[in-house]
Amino acid sequence: MKHEKSCGALVYRKHGDRTELLLIKHRFGGHWSFPKGHVELGENEFQTALREVKEETGLDVKDFEACGMINWCKSDGSGRYLEFLYKTSVFSGQLSEGTDEGNIFWLPKSELYTRPLSPNFAEYLPVFFSDKYVEALGEWTIDDSFTGIKYFS
Fold first, then answer.
1. How far, in Å, CA of 97 to CA of 105, rounded?
2. In whole angstroms, how far apart are CA 63 and each of 12, 43, 87, 125?
3. What is the C-alpha to C-alpha distance for residues 11 and 21, in angstroms, rounded to an integer?
4. Tens-of-pLDDT digits for all 153 residues of the chain?
5. How far apart are CA 151 and CA 7, in angstroms?
6. What is the four-CA torsion angle of 57, 101, 14, 70, rounded to 10 degrees?
7. What pTM does this model have?
8. CB of 79 within 8 A of CB of 151?
9. Inter-residue contact 67 to 133 (CB < 8 Å)
10. What is the largest CA-CA distance in the chain?
């Protein structure tokens, strides 16, 4: 069975009475997502999330809150993909204009569902927006079709 692990973070800020999310509009496909990536040799999950935010947005973040983890399993048992999720509103530095991934935007939370989201991004939102730690179990088929997810907290 193939095992992969990635980590990501949702950076947010309060702007008046609304919450804005720091998202990436990807160059290829135009879908919207949050900074995330694979764990590199010698890194733990926390370090990976810090690095990915810096690489993809230019910002330094701290005071991460562990939101949860999604365990994606292939329905035929041939693969497993773990994603560790964090969030923070504490950041510093200069927001980059864009990276190899795409362009970076502050998007009002209320407008999130008006954008084409990356595959399964909607399934991450209950983990990010919960007030408590959440774990989830998701499944996809051998042709990479999403079949469902269950949340546990």
1. 9
2. 12, 18, 9, 20
3. 6
4. 888 999 999 999 998 999 999 999 998 888 999 999 999 999 999 999 999 999 999 999 999 999 999 999 998 888 899 999 999 999 999 999 878 889 999 999 999 999 999 988 999 999 999 999 999 999 988 787 888 999 998
5. 18
6. -110
7. 0.92
8. no
9. yes
10. 48
Both tokens assigned to 147? 């079949």
Secondary structure (3-state) at 46: helix
Helices (H), 41-93: 45-57
CA neighbor of 67 nearest in space, from 20, 126, 121:
126
CA distance 17 to 131: 19
The amino acid present at 82, given as its one-letter code, is L
Place of tokens 């993809």: 56
Residue showing tokens 């909607």: 122
